[in-house]
Amino acid sequence: MIIKKNSDVSEDFIKEEGINKVKRKILIGPHDGSKNIIMRYFKVLPGGNTALHVHDHEHVVKIEKGKGVVINEAGEEIIVSEGQSLFIKGNEKHQFRNHFQGSFEFLCIILNTEEANK
Question: Is there a domain that residue 17 lies in?
């Protein structure tokens, strides 16, 4: 069994095209011996966004702090906030944005696949 404090996990800005002001922690993943899942923690700073993207794997998202906007496949902007959870299907286009003053933070759990480890 692995037990860690989230505050002990390093947090890095994501430096990829289309991503702005987003930090990520890998809370549980392959480095912990997890063969099937990866649990990540994202912090989208005010004015930040993930890329509008699509990938094969599905994932679940739990909003932990603040509020933000999720863009769905139809391009609709939906405000989400702490206490809500999302299921994003594989190959479903999506994006997270933070138009608000505080940080927008969420857990994102995915399958541990070759694509997810890029």
Answer: yes
